[in-house]
Every structure is written in C-alpha cells, then in structure tokens.
C-alpha cells in the first residue's frame, strides 16, 4: 500500500529533510525515508547524535547573535519544524525578532506554514539555495528582512547537498554581498576527515534520495567562510562551539565529523 503525502509529493523517494526528521526522532517521515536513514545509520551510527548536536548548535548560535544585537534572521534549508526553531530561540530573548524560513521541500512548506500561521514576525517560503538571488528577491522575505541592517544568515546542514558543479562559493558570495556589515553567517557541514572510508556508502544512499550527499574535508568547509571574520573558537566540531556552561559532551569517537562556525561580515 502506497503511503499518501501532500499533493505532488512522491513518498517513494527518500527525502533528505524527512530523513533528518527521522534522525531527530520525528514523525514526519515515510517508509522510504526511514529505510534510507537506517542504511546511513548502519554506516555512521553517530549521525543521530550529530543531528541533535546540530540543533543544539542552532540554539547557541542564535542566542549569540541576538546578544550581539541581531534582530532578523534568514534560515535557508530549515527542514521540518521541530523543537527550538530559530524564532523560538530568538523571540524568547527579544520578542520582536523576525525570522524568514526557506526550504525547497513542499512538505516542509506545508508543515511550516501550518505551524507558523499564528506566529508574528515569522514567514515560511519555498526557495532553493542553488538560486540564492531568487530567495533574496522574494517579496515575503523582503517584507520581513531589511538587508540594509545586520542579519543572521543560517545554512545549517544544507551545503553538503550542494555539489561543486553548482558553485557553492558563488552561492555564499551572493548571500554575503546582500548582507550589511555587522551581519553574521552561520554554517554547519558534515566533514569526512575522521571517517573517509564511510563517505562512499553514505553517498550511495543519498544518490537515490532527493539530494545527493557531497563529501568534503574540514579544509574545504573552512573555505566557505572566506570574506567573513570567524568568531571564536573558529571552525570546530558542533559540541565545541561555545558549549553551555557546565555541559558535558560525549564525543563517542566522532572526531572532525560535523563542523560548524560563525563568521561576521565586516
């Protein structure tokens, strides 16, 4: 029996946003997503741990930006709504904070708009990071985000789905040029340094999903911050970026598996 999804959504093809939802323990996924995710977990069991650390990094980076004076955020590749989204973290500190969420998955759009319908200063639009200028030009984004003022632009766990053929450096340059001085750029990206032998198997699973997985080293990921001044402690493993006081991290031998950083636009 074929599972039914929203109109126009093929539930038989694994979807990277729904796979991520499965890693986080969410319920917005289908059989094909779960089967593909389990294949990845068989190769790299720490993925489930790392996706949760990625959400924790989101919270810490947003709090850092709000405390630095940022009051507007552009979260591209937001994925399915879960606990502690950008607007929840930011508005808990500054209620007037504005957030534009962007994703190219119609399922994410449906869920996002339903959840955010009664939330002020927040919008959810469909857009593809591969065409960043179209995102920047969207009326709903422009209505909420004033690019003449500092903004926090967030690309969490999305750039490893952008191939070199799609010119990722140009994508980030387009976003950077639209950002006013004093803006922040937040990135997280899977690195293969610690587990290079696992990369081909993961790539094979994602080759049958909605987006391929692109293997990159830590050095390649660090290049994405060119044109930004890195905030301390630089490009590091997710749990190492400004951990909350008193927190204890269990690394489980991950090594340089999931890197992150925050850069400031000068």
UniProtKB/TrEMBL annotation:
CDD domains: AdoMet_MTases (cd02440)
Listed name of the protein: S-adenosyl methyltransferase
Transmembrane segment boundaries: none
Any GO BP: methylation
Keywords: Methyltransferase, Transferase
GO molecular-function terms, A-Z: methyltransferase activity
UniProt entry tagged with the keyword Mitochondrion: no
């Amino acid at each position: 029996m074929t599972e039914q999804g929203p109109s126009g959504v093929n539930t038989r093809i694994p979807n990277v946003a729904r796979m991520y939802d499965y890693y986080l323990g969410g319920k917005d996924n289908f059989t094909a997503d779960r089967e593909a995710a389990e294949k990845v977990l068989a190769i790299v069991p720490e993925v489930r741990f790392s996706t949760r650390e990625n959400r924790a990094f989101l919270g810490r980076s947003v709090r850092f930006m709000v405390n630095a004076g940022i009051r507007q955020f552009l979260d591209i590749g937001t994925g399915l709504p879960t606990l502690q989204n950008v607007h929840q973290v930011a508005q808990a500190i500054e209620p007037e904070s504005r957030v534009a969420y962007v994703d190219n998955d119609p399922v994410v759009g449906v869920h996002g708009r339903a959840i955010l319908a009664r939330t002020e200063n927040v919008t959810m639009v469909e857009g593809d990071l591969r065409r960043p200028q179209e995102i920047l030009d969207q009326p709903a984004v422009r209505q909420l985000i004033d690019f003449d003022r500092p903004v926090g632009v967030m690309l969490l766990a999305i750039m490893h789905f952008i191939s070199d053929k799609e010119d990722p450096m140009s994508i980030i340059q387009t976003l950077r040029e639209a950002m006013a001085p004093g803006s922040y750029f937040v990135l997280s990206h899977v690195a293969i340094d610690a587990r290079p032998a696992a990369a081909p198997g993961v790539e094979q699973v994602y080759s049958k999903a909605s987006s391929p997985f692109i293997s990159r080293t830590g050095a390649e990921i660090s290049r994405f911050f060119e044109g930004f001044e890195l905030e301390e402690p630089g490009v590091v493993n997710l749990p190492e970026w400004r951990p909350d006081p008193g927190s204890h991290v269990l690394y489980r031998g991950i090594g340089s598996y999931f890197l992150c950083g925050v850069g400031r636009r000068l």
